[in-house]
Amino acid sequence: MERLLKFGFKKIGKWNLVDNELTFEIDSFAKDSNIVVAFAQGETVKFISLAEDTLESLLIKLTNNSSNDEYFLKLGGYLKEELKENNIEIYAMKNKKFFGFMTKFSKEDINKMIQDFSPSWNKENLKDRVKDMLKRDRIAIEKSEKEKIKKEIKNPGSTEKKPKKEHPSYIFALTKSYYERGFFNIKTSHSHLVAGDKVPINIILDSKKTIVGRISRTANATKVARVIGNKPLRLWLEKNSGINKELKITFINKKKIKLEALD
Length: 263
Description:
Elements: H1 2-7, E1 10-18, E2 21-26, E3 33-41, E4 44-54, H2 55-63, H3 70-83, E5 88-94, E6 97-98, E7 102-103, H4 107-117, H5 120-154, E8 169-173, H6 176-181, E9 183-185, E10 200-205, E11 209-216, E12 226-228, H7 230-240, E13 246-253, E14 256-261
Parallel strand pairs: 10-14
Antiparallel strand pairs: 1-2, 1-5, 3-4, 3-5, 6-7, 8-13, 9-12, 10-11, 11-12, 13-14
């Protein structure tokens, strides 16, 4: 087989069928591992594989009719059927290649080799293995989906984390009037984010304390909202901030805001 020989294979033996039992004869590599082996009928390559264990152990598995491995049983069946009319020769090479330096064939190399020769027994085996793989994947997916449904029934909404809502906010400087009187004006661009005139508003202070203030839309001639916290807000400002210090305001909803002292 010229193509096999060009790859580096050499003929090392053959398969025999005696009383419908498989036997083999090889003169090389029997006890070697990592051997690339090929079975050929005339000029046709029927099968290529890597014997990661010893070559002899791989061939013996093919002669074992009681094997529990469907892979070897099927391949043994192909060999028996072919040997009724044709000879099957065994080719092999060490799992090494030389391109300026010695290295091993990777699994991708061997898969490429199989694709190049397109051995019919590999195709059948590959098809079965792909079917089996897809079946296992489908079972795993179904199992995963069932577990997901169970979790959802037990804890509705727990299987998916909802993205954290980002609330609008801005930073402003605490003026002397704000500091001394316990109020502050809302920027014109954000004034629409709070409720109407005289509506109570919850003011969360550094996520630790909540006080109740009120909204005024008449304190400013421009009708821009003012948040009035009176004494509770003034006391918190005295303790946690100072004149010209920065505060961050976050708008939770029209009746709730949050204040954070940044300095």
